[in-house]
Amino acid sequence: MAIVMTLVATLVVAVAAAPAGHPATFDAWLASVIAVLGFRAWNVWRFPRDPVLRLDASPAFLVRFAAGIVLTGLCWAAFVLLFYRDLPSHEQTLVSTVVTAFATGGMTVLASLPWLAMTYTMLMLVPMAVALFAGDTRADLMLGALSLIYVVLSFGTVRMASGSIREAIRLARENANLFVEAVDREARMRTLNTELEHSRQAQIAANERLEHTVRRRTMLLEKEIEERKSYQERLERLANEDPLTALANRSRLNAVLNAAAPAQADSGQSRFVVYFIDLDRFKELNDGLGHATGDRVLRVLAQRMRAVAARALCVARWGGDEFVIVRRPDDDDDEAADLAWGDRLIAALSAPIELDHGPVQIGATIGVARHPADGTNPEQIVRLADMAVFHAKQQGGGVTCAYRAEWGALAEERHELMQALRRAIDTDALELHYQPIVDLADGRVHAFEALVRWRHPTLGNIPPARFVALAEESGHIVRLGAWVLRRACREARRFVGDRCERVAVNVSVRQFSQGDFLAVLDEALADSGLDPRALEIELTESVFAEDTDQVLATLRAIRRRGVRISIDDFGAGYSSLSYLQRFPVHTLKVDRSFVRDLDNGGETIISAVLSMSRSLGLEVVVEGVETEAIRARIRALGALCAQGYLFARPMPPREIDGWLAAHASSVATNPSAAPVLGDA
Ligand code: C2E
Ligand code: MG
Ligand code: MG
After folding, report:
1. Could you report the per-residue pLDDT of 1-43, keeping only the tens digit for each?
2. Which domains does the chain have, with CATH numbers?
3. Distance of alpha carbon 335 from the chain centroid
């Protein structure tokens, strides 16, 4: 703006006050002014904002700006000094007006740069004052003096104005900065708002995702809890339930009995009755029709028990085909009513069961014991009920029988031993020892007799004579005998051969006549792969005492298989000798008692047996040879084979090889002597 004004004023002066006398100097002046103005215009064009406001403008700019102002002032000073005096008075008035106007304007415009404003004012007015003082009128002198006074006054004005202008500029600049800052802040605010909105959206999305995850996790957790619950229920069921029949198992039964017993004992409330149920003919059915059918029958019978004993405290499977029901009696202390309930249960269990191949009928025998009349210990009551079943079974079964106190402690002990024996058979806790039967002439080992051994967990070794008799009494002998036969055939495979011809196995009367003995024999042979000729069955005379066609047929069948038969403890029992002609027997084992009583008629009997057997073509084994003297005496009587502690005590299978080796070497050096090993 100032540049344009200066240009206009210059042109006005050039047109209106061009001096007539020095055209060339004036042209040079005009060119200088235009050049200076051009320079200033260029400088401003480089910095289009008002340069005066830019107090912090670069020093280069300020130098160029100041140079432009000073040059402008110098131009006007030159004009005044060169041309003013030669101008007519009206043109002088125009020039002094323009110069004064420029000085005043410059003072205001440049107030922010006081040194420049004062220089400019001086450059404009001092030459003017000089030119006026050179005039010849008073008025010129007055004007010159006024100009100088004006210069001095303007210095003061500039000093005063520059402070407030600088302040105004500073404020304006601050305002501008504040405005820029406000705009900036608003922009930042907008950006922040946008970012805030984005993060809000992101938060909503994240919340939704979180909710979804939480929902899914909750569902999974609920499922897991559900699964755990059903797993726990399953575990509980497994711990308390018989898996086949879904009845209570023993552990559940014990818990029920323990819960019921103390309450009864303390409070004298109504008693409870334990029914021990043993199914009749179930084992035959299970063996004959297979275990799947057996399981089905058990399930049906369990269902019937549950129906009859719907209000009982517990219906449990004791194991195998045995069950226990605990119930409160209908009528206190009425034994007849308790037994009648048992009979009703038997009737329900005896109803035919429809199977695929037709109906089958299973009966039951029940033993009853009562709390607290028969005992207060829950375990004992179950045992007493079990004893009652045993009694009932011995009388043919199919009835309900109550425990009788007069059976006494001895009966209970025997019963317990029987139960323990049954468990021992089931769990393979028995073992066999073997005793050699030796040829008296050359020391050759004819056979090893298998003798069963039972080590009771608390009572220790129990003599076979005791528990075999017990097994016969209880009927367990059938299973015990089958176990012995199977085990002996299997173990004999190891020692039967060159060094020993066969294994002898004791078979009891009841085992022989009950159950399917031939099937058991065949199975043992097939299972072990033992040559039937390497097996000898020892039967006691009582078998032959029965003298039935069935016994004869079975003996013949045994012989047909190549299995040998011997009569054990010969002479100790039944004394009719006629059966020796009728029955197909190979060997007689002379009972130990004759050897013991050798001097009291034993020798005579042994001689008689030896001569009789020779005529019948039977072999003889003399049992119980304990000393060399006895060996010599029976040998002198003509005995060929013997068995006894002199040769060896019964020994476990692992010792047989060693004994055979030792025996062979001692026989080689002295055929009449043999080492004694085995049972102490
Ligand atoms: P057993 O069949 O007459 O067996 C011979 C018994 O006489 C065995 O007694 C044996 O150890 C014993 N003995 C052998 N030599 C001598 C001797 O020199 N002196 C004396 N004092 N005794 C001798 P163990 O093993 O105690 O068997 C007793 C009975 O138990 C057997 O008599 C047999 O009747 C029966 N038994 C053993 N094991 C079985 C078996 O697996 N099944 C059956 N049904 N009964 C068996
Ligand atoms: Mg024997
Ligand atoms: Mg014997």
Report:
1. 777 777 787 777 777 777 776 678 888 888 888 898 888 888 8
2. 2-185 (no CATH), 250-405 (3.30.70.270), 430-669 (3.20.20.450)
3. 52
